[in-house]
Specification:
The chain has 320 residues and is mostly helical. Among the domains are: 98 residues, no CATH class; 105 residues, no CATH class. 46% of the residues lie in helices and 5% in strands. It has a two-stranded antiparallel sheet with strand order 1-2. Strands 3-4 form a two-stranded antiparallel sheet. Helix 2 packs parallel to helix 13. The longest helix is centred in the C-terminal third of the chain and has 19 residues. The chain is globular.
């Protein structure tokens, strides 16, 4: 049995029905009506992470948490706390394989979508939040929803000279020169674009892809080989505002750019984070997160799933 097969067998173990479901669907390509997919998906709703998240939801359709900076309890609006308010919890449910077919998810998703501003934004043009929300709602089954389309229009129309994204609060911080784009926010925008093939040939998406390819995916634009920040040197989950190497490679591979020679060092870094058969450990997870997706320092199926999905997408591109 080769190492890759061993990893897949590990991901398919039934102790984590969400990883099993997504491995069957996104890596092995099982159809939605296959018995294996149907059985795996039915087990998701009974899993502890999903039941726990839904039980913590307020009856009116949101999650509350104290904002660590202001000490205010937030979550019924678009302001958020540390990893446990509404947009985070919806993202976690989407990762776990839950979608709008669940009445509770439909209720809270529609409520949050209704808080969107007219231009497609939710809060102060935070680029990370915009991209993060778009991906969440696509995964929940709202790709065709007018709110998601409006958000994508905003993402597609927001342009910066270096090709990335930046929040409004950081624009104009220096008078002597332009502020560089935010790598973390740009990663979330890249993940959002990766869900919409219709945009892949459009200028703004190409500009963002070049923002990453020009830096080898995860390195400083002016200093090749030096990681852009500490995020990409450690492995974190769930996906929040941090930027993992597996996120960048997963998105770029999904869009057909994984085999670009400029990403070789990024692939090498990711492969160097795995054990002898390709399993990845969890280096960091937020202690305030209501979804405990693993323990720090231990092998983690979620990070391994994303690393393997990125490799699968890259292999598929090479075959095509």
């Amino acid at each position: 049995m080769d190492a890759q097969t061993d990893v897949i067998r590990w991901l398919l173990e039934e102790d984590n029905p969400s990883v099993r479901y997504r491995t069957l669907k996104e890596i092995l390509g099982y159809k939605d009506d296959s018995p294996e997919i149907v059985r795996a998906k039915s087990a998701i709703l009974q899993s502890h992470p999903v039941r726990s998240l839904l039980e913590e939801m307020h009856p009116d359709g949101y999650w509350l948490q104290k904002n660590p900076r202001t000490q205010r309890v937030v979550g019924d609006g678009v302001e958020y706390g540390s990893f446990g308010t509404t947009h985070f919890c919806l993202a976690y449910l989407s990762e776990l394989g839950v979608d709008r077919s669940n009445p509770l998810v439909q209720k809270t998703a529609e409520r949050y979508l209704g808080l969107q501003q007219q231009d497609g934004d939710w809060l102060r043009h935070y680029s990370c939040l915009l991209g993060y929300n778009i991906r969440t709602f696509v995964r929940l089954g709202f790709m065709e929803d007018e709110h998601v389309q409006r958000a994508m229009d905003l993402l597609n129309q927001t342009c910066r000279k270096d090709g990335g994204y930046l929040c409004d609060i950081h624009e104009g911080k220096t008078r002597t020169g332009s502020v560089k784009s935010c790598f973390r926010g740009s990663v979330k925008a890249l993940l959002a674009f990766s869900e919409f093939p219709i945009y892949w040939d459009q200028p703004r998406c190409k500009q963002l892809v070049n923002y990453f390819l020009g830096r080898g995916g995860i390195f400083q634009s002016q200093h090749p080989g030096i990681p852009v920040n500490r995020d990409v040197q450690i492995q974190s989950f769930p996906i929040t505002w941090r930027a993992n190497v597996y996120e960048v490679l997963y998105a770029l591979s999904k869009m057909g750019f994984g085999s670009d020679e400029r990403l070789q060092a990024a692939w090498k870094l990711q492969e160097g984070q795995a054990d002898s058969i390709g399993r990845h450990r969890l280096d960091w997870t937020p202690t305030q997160c209501p979804w405990m997706a693993g323990k720090r320092g231990e092998l983690n199926k979620w990070i391994t799933f994303y690393a393997e999905a990125a490799r699968k997408n890259n292999r598929q591109t090479l075959i095509n």
